């Protein structure tokens, strides 16, 4: 069994569909030196069937993206409680409420007991609530595909994730009758940060505060929802303490520097208005300039409707959200990740070298 990934890192987004589809189970998604998962193949038992390459969403022509023209909407949840517990305007809660209300299941990013970010499936509002709020770390999708297939055999399922994860899920169910029950909702994605840096950062906060981390929020509504405030909200709580503390170091590496992003993010195929999903949700940045009457400081979602299923969902959530159609040019002017990927800074290599040589604290 090989122990390292031999391919070009820019050509693997870590969705893991190759592992899930391998008929001989000879692929293992394995973390590399930056903590990102890559497929490692046991060549001794591999039968060279080529399925792994055929299901890879980055190698698939069109990457499972829709061809029709999408429509763009701003949307704000009617409930203040939902807005306060959502990153943007609460679109995820509205969409997942529809699916849960029809007896379906929701698959999204949750924290495990050690605050690692993992994809899970929930059938209750309480389980779904754990998926609320953005966790700016690449989530672990291992084991999710088989579970999704089981759930889709029983009922409708909402899958939410980054665009590349959604393309992986579309690839897995491509041609399957189970896809009828699948509603795919992606996010506009800046990039996914390293799980290894996340582990190091959690340990650093624990060391600095002399206690175990109990809770984290990557963005909060302590400050008015506005793009210029989006880097201020990282908060954490140490076990036994009542108050949340703030720290900007992780978010700074994520947004302003891009030093901790997955290599494939710099060549992302999904920074496009054509999406590999039924609906896309994101921040409706800039709405305060274009339609000040729709801005209230608690968050506004951007919804992109990509398919007839997406249009039916828009109708279904219209009782729970205030929705207004917006012109495409307004949205693309604000959302660069609908047009091109972010560029990595020249110091990315130097940062990782420092992490390896002297540890995260010095590198920070
Ligand atoms: C890594 C990442 C980068 C993003 N980049 C941008 C951006 O550049 N521009 C922009 O407008 N919006 C971006 N978003 C989306 C934005 O932060 C909100 O997640 C989105 O607007 C949904 O907010 P909400 O109020 O509808 O619901 P919330 O309740 O905040 O919903 C959270 C949703 O995000 C999913 N999610 C959370 N963490 C992860 C994760 N690590 N991996 C996969 N899915 C996750 C959950 O499953 C759930 O569906 C990004 C999100 C992530 C996770």
Automatic annotation (TrEMBL):
Pfam families: Fer4_7, FrhB_FdhB_C. Gene3D superfamilies: 3.30.70.20. One of its GO terms (molecular function) is iron-sulfur cluster binding. Residues 3-32, 37-67 form the 4Fe-4S ferredoxin-type domain. Keywords: Iron, Iron-sulfur, Metal-binding. InterPro entries: 4Fe4S_Fe-S-bd (IPR017896), 4Fe4S_Fe_S_CS (IPR017900), FrhB_FdhB_C (IPR007525), Polyferredoxin-like_ET (IPR052977). SUPFAM superfamilies: 4Fe-4S ferredoxins. It comes from the Bacteria. The keyword Metal-binding applies. PANTHER family: POLYFERREDOXIN PROTEIN FWDF, PTHR43193. This is 4Fe-4S ferredoxin. It comes from Cloacibacillus porcorum.
């Amino acid at each position: 069994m090989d122990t390292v990934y031999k391919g070009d890192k820019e050509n693997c987004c870590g969705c893991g569909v190759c592992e899930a589809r391998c008929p001989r189970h000879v692929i293992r998604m394995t973390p590399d030196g930056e903590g990102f998962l890559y497929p490692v193949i046991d060549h001794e038992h591999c039968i060279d069937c080529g399925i792994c390459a055929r299901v890879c969403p980055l190698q698939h022509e069109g990457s499972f993206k829709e061809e029709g023209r999408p429509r763009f909407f701003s949307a704000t949840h009617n409930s203040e409680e939902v807005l306060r517990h959502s990153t943007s305007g609460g679109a995820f809660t509205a969409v997942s409420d529809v699916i849960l209300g029809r007896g379906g299941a929701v698959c999204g990013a949750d924290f495990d007991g050690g605050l690692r970010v993992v994809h899970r499936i929930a059938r209750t509002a309480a389980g779904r609530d754990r998926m609320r709020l953005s966790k700016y770390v690449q989530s672990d999708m291992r084991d999710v595909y088989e579970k999704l297939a089981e759930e889709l055999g029983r009922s409708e399922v909402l899958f939410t994730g980054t665009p590349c994860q959604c393309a992986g899920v579309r690839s897995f169910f491509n041609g399957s009758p189970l896809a009828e029950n699948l509603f795919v909702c992606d996010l506009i994605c800046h990039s996914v940060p390293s799980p290894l840096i996340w582990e190091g950062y959690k340990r650093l906060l624990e060391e600095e505060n002399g206690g175990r981390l109990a809770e984290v929020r990557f963005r909060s509504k302590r400050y008015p929802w506005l793009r210029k405030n989006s880097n201020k909200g990282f908060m954490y709580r140490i076990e036994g303490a009542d108050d949340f503390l703030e720290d900007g170091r992780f978010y700074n590496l994520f947004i302003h520097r891009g030093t901790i992003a997955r290599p494939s993010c710099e060549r992302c195929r999904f920074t496009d208005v054509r999406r590999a999903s039924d609906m896309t949700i994101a921040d409706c940045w800039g709405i305060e300039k274009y339609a000040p009457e729709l801005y209230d400081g608690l968050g506004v979602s951007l919804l992109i409707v990509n398919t007839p299923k997406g249009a039916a969902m828009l109708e279904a959530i219209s009782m729970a959200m205030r929705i207004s159609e917006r012109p495409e040019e307004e949205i693309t002017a604000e959302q660069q990740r609908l047009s091109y990927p972010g560029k990595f800074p020249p110091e990315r290599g130097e940062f990782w070298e420092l992490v390896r040589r002297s540890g995260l604290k010095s590198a920070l």
